[in-house]
Design brief:
It is a single chain. The protein is of the alpha+beta class and about 45 residues long. The chain has one domain. Helix content is about 35%, strand content about 25%. It has two helices and two strands; from the N terminus they run βαβα. It has a two-stranded parallel ribbon. Strand 1, helix 1 and strand 2 form a beta-alpha-beta unit. The protein is elongated. The mean pLDDT is about 90.
């Protein structure tokens, strides 16, 4: 995913499940992630 490095991704459902796993993978790949979730406490 080097071609995405430095880009911004918006991930919905980022507090749990597939959304959380996707957000983590994207951050590790060098993207800036904007996480959207209904429960702010679970994002932190």
């Amino acid at each position: 995913m080097d071609h995405l490095k430095g880009r911004v991704a918006v991930v919905t459902g980022a507090s749990a499940g597939i959304g959380a796993a996707t957000a983590i993978k994207l951050v590790k790949a060098g993207l800036t992630v904007v996480g959207i979730a209904r429960r702010l406490q679970r994002l932190q």
